[in-house]
Design goal:
- This protein is an alpha/beta fold and 233 residues long.
- Helix content is 41%, strand content 10%.
- The chain has six helices and eight strands.
- The strands form three sheets. Strands 2-6-7-3 form a four-stranded mixed beta sheet. The chain has a two-stranded parallel sheet with strand order 1-8.
- The two termini are 25 Å apart.
Length: 233
Amino acid sequence: MRWVRVAGLVLALLSAACFVGTDGEGEPPEGPPPASAEESPGEQEDGTMTAEEFERDVEGAVEVAEGYWGQRVRGFEPVRRIVPYRQEGEVACGGQPLTRNNAAYCSAGDFIAYDVNFAVGAFRQVGDAFIFYLLGHEYAHAVQARLGIALRFTIQQELQADCMAGAYIGDSVKAGALRLAQGDIDEFRRGLLAVGDDPSVPWFAPGAHGTAEQRTDAFFEGYEGSLEPCDVG
């Protein structure tokens, strides 16, 4: 595992949507990933200028995730592929096209896909911590699939994934695989407060992820307490 400095995180730019395909066929497109990302006006760059640079950083995050879950799940098999895409419908899971501004784990094809333009744009603004939350949350869905975890409501699945992402990041910091800069914890907290569902969204609604308070609590329970509060067992 390599050392990674985690910069400021503002998760308001992170799409709340996660799609977990459970039936049908899911298959990422073949061929090379996109060569570059679209520019967005007013972006504050954080050292990453192209999709290729972002993908190299993703490789480092994948390495940490594989090492982390490989130590905690007996017989763990890494996710088959990490797939960048740039157009709606370019990647499908279970017959459903993945939308723009999204990241998702597809259990049908066992791959994680993300909109490269959205991801690179957000990474430029929030820093390299964005990768670890983005990948950590989706990799948590992959681990849920490997462990046969299928909770009744979407919100339960998503809050558990937030907790698992927190455990992955927190435990990796404790182990020295990741290194936080001063002020990053407060930035994690501020960012998480920005991605919650509107309080008017029913907790039992399909696609519900949880309020800002619920998502923040779930993430930091994992960050501080490892996997035990995530009820993965």
